[in-house]
Amino acid sequence: MIDLDLRTVYFNSLLFFFVSAIVIFILWWQTRKRFDGVQFFVLYIVLFLFGDGLISLRGYIPDVLSIVVSNSLIILGASLSYIGLERFYKQKSSILKHIILLACFVPVQYYFCSIYPDLNIRIINVSAGIAVITGLLVWLSLIKLRNIDDPILKAYGIANMLFFGISIFRIYRTIYHPQVIPDYFNPKTTDLFVVLSFHVLFLLLSFFLILIINNRLIREIKSQEDKFNKAFHYAPFSMCVTRISDGKILEVNEFFEKLHGYTMAELDGRLISDVNMWLSECDRTSFMQSLENGQAKSLQYQFKRKNGDIFPGELSAQTFMYNHEECLISVINDITEKTKADKLINDSQLMLKKFAAQLQSAVEEEKVLLANQIDNELNQNLAALKLELGHFKNQLNAGQSNNAPTEISVKIDDIYSILGNSLKSSLKIMSSLRNEVLHIMGFMGAVELYVDEFSKKNQIKCDIETNISKYPLNPQQSTPLFRVFENAMSNIAEHSKATEAKVRINTVDNTLRLEIVDNGIGFSYNQSMLFTCKGLMFMQERIHLLDGNMQIETASEQGTKIIIEIPLCA
Q1: What is the per-residue pLDDT across 437-491, written as a single tens digit (0 to 9) for each?
Q2: CB of 54 within 8 A of CB of 69?
Q3: Architecture per CATH, 6-229
C-alpha cells in the first residue's frame, strides 16, 4: 500500500492553482471591459493559492499563519467566487451573509488554535464554512440561474453539490470518529480521502470557472458575428470586403449585387480591379491614398454598373485584420436621389436668395421713389406756401400802423413756424428714405462723412484706411452695405465703450473687403449669435444677399473686429 504524504498533496495542488491563477488572470485581462466578476475569480484562485501554501508550511511557520490565516483565506476566496459568479451573470445580492460567515469563522478558528487548541473542532469549523459557501453556490448555479442555458454552469453547480456533501460527511466523520493524534498531515485513510476529494474538487471548480468564462466569450463572439453578418448582408447599401495585398474580393452583400449588377458567383475569386466599377482609375488611386490612416469617410466618386450606367456614390471604408491578413471593408451608398434633392434645394435657395435680393432692391427703389415724390411735390409745395405766407405777412404789415401786431399777424407767425417745422420733418423723412449723401457722393463719400460726424458726436477717434481710388460699387450693393456699416458703427457707439475705431476699405481680387475694428470691451461671441441676435442677424442677412460673408473676431476686453467681404460686380 502506498503511504501518501498529505503535505505532498498540498504542494502538488499549489502548482495547479498557480497555473489556474495565470490562466484566469489572462482571461480577466482580455475580458475586463466586457465581463464583470472575473476579477473576483482571479482573487479566489490567488487566495486559495496562498491559503494552501500556508497550510503546506505548517510546522515551519507560526500556527496562526498556517491554521487561522490560511483557512480564513480559503473561506474568503470561496465567498469571492460566489460574488464573482453573481456579477458575471449580472445578479446582485447583499454581501452581508459573507461578512457574517467570516465574522463567525475567524474567531472560532483562532480560539481553537491559539487559546484552546483542538484539531477536530477546527476541521468542523472549516468544513462548516465550506459547506455554507458551496451550498450558496449550488443554490445560485442550479436554482437562481436555472434559466441560463450553459451545461458548464450546471456541471459547476453539481461539483459544488458534491463539495457540500463531502463537507457534511467530514463534519459527521469528525464528530463521531475524531482524530486521536492531533497531526493534520497524518490522517486516517478516510480523512485522507476527504482531503484529497477537497483538492480534486477545488481543482475541478477552478477548471469549470475557466470554461464558464471561455464559453461566454465564445457565445459573445458568435453573437457579434451574427450581428455583423446580418448587418452586412441586409444593409441597404453596397458593402464589399477585399484583401488589401492583392485586392481580391472576399465577400459582398446582397445590395452590392443589386447596385452594381454582379452576382457573388461572378465575383468569386476576382480582383476588385477586374470588376471595373470605378469610372476613373484616378479616383481609385485617390481613394487608396486617402486610406493612409486606415479609414476614409464620405468620399464622393462616380461609379459604373455592370451595364455601363454611371451613378454618383458616397464611399466610406475601414481596414481591419482577418485571418492574419489586412482587409478592407468598403461601403458605397448610391446618392443619385440625394444629389437630385440637393440640387433642387440649392436651386430653391438660390431662387429665394435672388427673390429676397430683388425684394430688398425693390424696397430701396420704392424708398427712393417715395423720397423723390416728397422732394418734388410735398417739399416744394411746403416751401412755396411758406414763401407766399411770408409775402402775405409783409403786405399785411405794410398796410398796418406801427402799433402792436394784430391777432391775425400772430396767427400768421404761428402758421409760418408750423410750415417751417413741417418742411424740416419732410426733409428728415426724405433723407431716411433716400440717403442723400450716399445718393449724391457714393459709398466712399458717405462713409467718410459718416465717420467724421461719428467721431464728433461720440468722442471716439475714428480713422479710415483705403486703397480705393474710384467708386467700385453699384447702387444695389452700396445701399445695403452702407446700412450694415451704419449698424456696426452704431453698435460701437452704444455698446463697445471704445475710445478708438478704425475702418479699412480695400479691394483684393475683385472683392471688396470692409474691416471695422474697435478697442472696446468686446463680448463673448459664438457662431449661433448670427442667427439669434437681431442686429447681427440683420447684418448677416444683408451681406448674404450680396453673395458675401461676414466674420466677427472678438473676446472679452479685447475689442471687436468685423470683416465683411463682397464680390464686386463686373
Answers
A1: 566 667 787 788 888 888 888 888 888 888 776 666 776 777 788 888 888 888 8
A2: yes
A3: Up-down Bundle (1.20)
